[in-house]
Amino acid sequence: RAATRDDAGAVFHVVCEEITSTTRVIGDLVAGVPSTELGGGRLRAVLEQLAARCSLPASITIEADTAAGVNEETALFYVCLEALTNAVKHAEASTVEISLTSIGGALVMTVHDNGAGGADPTGSGLRGLADRLATCGGRLQVDSAPGAGTTVMATVPVSRFSAMA
Description:
Elements: H1 5-31, H2 43-53, E1 58-62, H3 70-89, E2 96-103, E3 106-113, H4 124-134, E4 139-143, E5 150-157
Parallel strand pairs: 1-2
Antiparallel strand pairs: 2-3, 3-5, 4-5
Helix pairs in contact: 2-3, 3-4
């Protein structure tokens, strides 16, 4: 029996859906990897990309002097990625605010969502981030009162030597 146009159209539709699905899966895999080697201020562009790709409206404020070393910027990248992921998947948030500033020899990144709150800072994702920050002398603070959204703040010290990486 020869294939009809309707059969061909149905097959084409299935193929298009599979390509779209595969593209989405590949994008999700790649999303967890910085688009460039970090350090020396390259975090700015990567955070802007994360905010632009976020499925929630995300505002971003980055001060001019926010360069650090590879380890520090990579740690901050992963904090932002995890906070955005949690806001989208768990918090029922409708907006996210990201800020990166330099205060007294340290970079401070804050990610705030307006979701349900109640995040557990001892959960494996946030605990892993705290451990990653600790390896470069940083710390993680999570404020997440039920009904008040979640604020994740990461602080890493920056030395003149690490900022030149």
